[in-house]
Amino acid sequence: MSLAQVRAATTTDVPEIARIQRETWRVAYAEFLGEQALAALDAPETEQHWTAAVEHPGTAVLVATEGEFTVGFCVAGKAPADEVASAAGELPEDAESVGLIATMLVEPRWGRRGHGGRLLGHAARELRELGAERGVSWVAQSDSASLAFYKRVGWHPDGTVRTLDTGEKTIRELRLTGSLAYLQLTS
User: Fold this and answer.
1) Which of 74, 83, 94, 155 could pair covalently with 104 via S-S, beta carbons 3.0-4.6 A apart?
2) Per-residue pLDDT tens for 41-65?
3) What is the mean pLDDT of the chain?
4) What was the pLDDT predicted at 124?
5) For residues 118 and 99, what is the distance between their CA atoms, to the nearest angstrom?
6) Residue 183 clears pLDDT 70, i.e. is over it
7) Longest dimension (CA), the chain
8) How does strand 59-66 pair with strand 134-140?
9) 123 CA to centre of own chain
10) What's the CATH code of the domain at 95?
11) Could you tell me if residue 90 is inside a domain?
């Protein structure tokens, strides 16, 4: 059995992060995003974007590995005000102690092996070290697998929604929130 781990990403992980994003979006999100958005993932700017994220101070980019394979990744950091504000633009009392799970993807062929839980556990630890007590993440309303994952760890929709325009389609996203205190690290 291969050893599964989570570690901080380095710039040498960027090609694999970009590949996982391309493959996962093509397999799991193609019908929601449209061809234009998927084609944009092949642009050289995609790897430049991920390099900037890995090098950005205050942002944790983590990769999940199984044996010699990189199988998923997560991006987390302190939540900007616009990510925690209500639809009316009002900030909650705990706005300064909210972390953001900006992206978490596990390549579908590696799903249901605990990688998502390990990534979220490590991201929660990183966010707690930054002073966060609660986390938020945005998930497409049509993404039943991700919604079920977050529900299993005790995160739920807080009633805030947003609509993203891909140029061809629109995606309705739900903001999920939950405590970072009880998310445990596994390997």
Assistant:
1) 74
2) 777 888 999 999 999 999 999 999 9
3) 91
4) 96
5) 17
6) no
7) 50
8) unpaired
9) 9
10) 3.40.630.30
11) yes
Helices and strands counted in the chain (H then E): 7, 7
Residue 184 falls inside a structural domain? no
Q: Do 80 and 64 meet the contact criterion of CB atoms below 8 Å apart?
A: no
135 found inside a domain: yes
Which helix (H) or strand (E) segment holds residue 94: the answer is none
Distances (CA, A) of 175 to 4, 92, 164: 29, 14, 13
Structural domain includes residue 39: yes
* pLDDT band for position 20 (cuts 50, 70, 90): very high
pTM, to two decimals: 0.91
Let me know: does 34 contact 168? Beta carbons within 8 Å: yes
- 100: pLDDT strictly greater than 90: yes
113: confidence class by pLDDT, cuts 50, 70, 90? confident
What letter would DSSP give residue 187?
Answer: -
* Residue 35 vs residue 3, higher pLDDT: 3
The answer to whether residues 103 and 96 touch, using CB atoms and an 8 Å cutoff, is no
Beta strands in the chain (DSSP E): 4-8, 59-66, 69-78, 98-106, 134-140, 156-165, 170-179
Cα 63-132-21 angle, rounded to 5 deg: 25
What is the rounded CA–CA span in Å between residue 166 and residue 33?
A: 6
